[in-house]
Amino acid sequence: MSATNHSDFVKQFPSYKSTSTIDVLRKTQYPLLEKESQIYLDYTGAGLYATSQLQTHQKLLTDSIFGNPHSWNPTSSHSTELVEKTRARILKFFNASPEEYVCVFTQNASGALKLVGEAYPFGAGCRYLLTFDNHNSVNGIREYARSRGASVTYIPVVLPDLRSDEIRLMSELSNPNDGCFNLFAFPAQSNFSGVQHPLEWIAEAQSKGWDVLLDAAAFVPTNELDLGRWHPDFVPLSFYKMFGYPTGVGVLIARKETLRKLSRSWFAGGTTTVASVRGNKFYAADAPAGLEDGTLNYLNIPAVGIGLDHLEKIGYETIHSRVECLTGWLLEKLVGMKHSNGSGLVKVYGPLNSKSRGGTIALNFFDLHGNIIPKFFLEKEANRRNISIRMGFFCNPGAGEVALDISGEELSSCFSRPSYEARITDLDFQNCIDPKASGAVRVSLGLVSNFEDVDAFLEFAAQFLN
Ligand SMILES: Cc1ncc(COP(=O)(O)O)c(C=O)c1O
Predict the structure, then answer these.
(1) Residue 137 half-sphere exposure, CB side, CA atoms within 13 Å?
(2) 264 CA distance to ligand 1 centroid (A)?
(3) How far is the CA of 139 from the centre of ligand 1 (A)?
(4) Which of 353, 376, 378 lies closest to 464 in space, CA to CA?
(5) Per-residue confidence at 32, pLDDT binned at 50, 70, 90?
(6) What letter does residue 285 receive in the DSSP assignment?
(7) How far is CA 333 from CA 3, 8, 344, 430, in A?
(8) Based on the number of CB atoms within 10 Å of its own CB, is 440 exposed (0-12), middle (13-18) or buried (19 or more)?
(9) Do 41 and 357 form a contact (C-beta atoms < 8 A)?
C-alpha cells in the first residue's frame, strides 16, 4: 500500500525522472536494501556503499602486497604511491589547486577539526566566531580557544527556518581583533535542519581578516563543493558520509598559506624531519606529514579514490536533483498531515521547502492535544518497520536548543544543580528539561534514496494521526 501517489509526485517534480540511473544502480549495486526490505533514512549519519566499491577495493588488496609507508622498500613504496595518488585524486575531485591546497589524512571529520583546534594559534585577545548551528566537533574547538585566552562568540539561528542571524554575523565579522588570529567556523549544511548556509560568507569573512573553517561533512554527500570557486581555509570531512566505505578515513583540506600559522605542541611518528632524545629537539615536517600522526590508514585510503570515482560517475547533478525532489515531496506531505481537529501531526524544524537546504529533516510528532509523541514509541514502531531514522540532537545542540525552545536559563538552572555540577547522564538531562530534551526525529535522504523510501516514512507517519 502506498501513502502517496507516485504519478502525482513525478508530475510535481518532473526532474526526478532524469535521475533514473540511480534506480538501476540501486538494484544492482545496493541489493540488500530490497532483499532485506530496509528503509534507510539516515544518510546524514552515514552513506551506503555499492558492492562494486568493495569488489574493486578487495581486488586491489588481493593483487598486491602493501607495506607500511614511510620507507623506500618496494612494498612500502607501493603503499606510498597509492596514498599520494589518492591525495591528488581528492584535490582534483574538489577542484582544489595543489598550489593552493593540501590534503591531510585524518581518521574522520572530527579528527580534522581537532587538528585545527589544537594547532590554531589562539591567544589572548584572539577570536573564535561560530554559528549556533554546528556539530559538536566544531563546538569543541571553543575549549582550545578559551583555554588559550581567546574569546568565543556564537551567532544565533533564528526561527522558524533556523538560518543564522546574518545582520549579527556581518557585524561580528566587521570586528576581528587586528594583530591577533581570528577564526570563523560554520557548516556548509546543517546536520540538524538541513539548512545550507551561504558560501559567500567565506570571502566576506576573509576580506575582513578571518580565517574560515567550512565544515563540509553533511554537505558533500549530495552537493558539489568547488574549491576553485570557494576558498575556505580549512575543510574537514569524512568519506563514509559520502559513499559509505571506507570508515576510518577523513581529511582536512587546508590552504597552504593558512596552514603555516598552525603550530602543534606535540610530535609523533612520521610528523618530524628529525626528532632527537639526546639533543632534546624535534623539527616538524611540512604538511601534510607534519599533521598526520603515526601510520596512515594506508590500506583503506585507496578505497577513497574508488568511492570518489563511483560518486563522480553518478554525478552530483543527478544526486542533488533526486534528493531535492524527494525532500520537497516529503516536506509537503508531512506538513499537510492533520489530526481530525485540524492540528498538525508534525512540526518540522527548519525550512519547509527545498530551497537552500539539503535532504536532512528534523521534526517532532504531536498528538491531537499538541503533546509530543514520545521518542521510544516512535523508535519502536520505526524499528518494527525496518526504518532507519535517528532521534535526539545529532551532536548539534545549538540548532536543537533553539528549535526546541530550550533557554539558556533552563540549561543553567539544570547544570547548576549540585548533583549535576560535575557529571550528568543523557537520562538526567532529559529528566531535567523533559520533554524538550529528548530532541527531535531526523530523517535524511541521500545517494540512493527513492520514492518508495519516502512513501514508507509517510505511511509510518500517518499511523500517528488520530
Ligand atoms: C556537519 C558535521 N560535522 C562533523 C561531523 C563529524 O563527523 P565524524 O563523526 O565522521 O567525525 C558530522 C557527523 O555527523 C557532521 O554531520
Answers:
(1) 22
(2) 23
(3) 12
(4) 378
(5) very high
(6) P
(7) 10, 12, 11, 30
(8) buried
(9) no
Q: What is the pTM of this model?
A: 0.97
DSSP letter at 279 equals T
Cβ–Cβ under 8 Å, residues 327 and 358: yes
The x, y and z cell numbers of residue 364, run together, are 517532532
Pocket test for ligand 1, best of 107, 110, 131 (most atoms within 8 A of CB): 110
- The phi and psi torsions of 5 (rounded to 5 degrees) equal -100, 125
Is the Cβ atom of 196 under 6 angstroms away from ligand 1? no
CA distance 215 to 222: 14
Residue 363's pLDDT band (cuts 50, 70, 90)? very high
**Ordered DSSP codes for 93-137:** HTT--TTTEEEEEESSHHHHHHHHHHHS---TT-EEEEESS--HH
Q: What angle do CA 336, 326, 368 make, to 5 degrees?
A: 25
DSSP state of 290: G
Q: Which atom of ligand 1 is nearest to the CA of 134?
A: 1
The atom of ligand 1 lying closest to the CA of 45 is: 14
CA of 78 to the centre of ligand 1 (A): 31
CA–centroid distance for 179 within its chain: 32
pLDDT at residue 31 is higher than 80: yes
| Residue 113 clears pLDDT 90, i.e. is over it | yes
- Collapse the DSSP code of 161 into the 3-class scheme (helix H, G, I; strand E, B; otherwise coil) and give the result: coil
14 CA to centre of ligand 1 in angstroms: 32
Length of the chain: 466
pLDDT per position as a tens digit, 380-436: 999 999 999 999 999 999 999 999 999 999 999 899 888 888 899 888 888 888 777
195-254 pLDDT tens trace:
999 999 999 999 999 999 999 999 999 999 999 999 999 999 999 999 999 999 999 999
* pLDDT at res. 354: 86
Residues with catalytic function: 395
- Minimum-distance ligand 1 atom for the alpha carbon of 191: 16
Rounded to an integer, the average pLDDT of 72-89 is: 96
> Is-contact 361 103, C-beta < 8 A?
no
**Average pLDDT of span 352-357:** 91
Mean pLDDT of the chain: 96
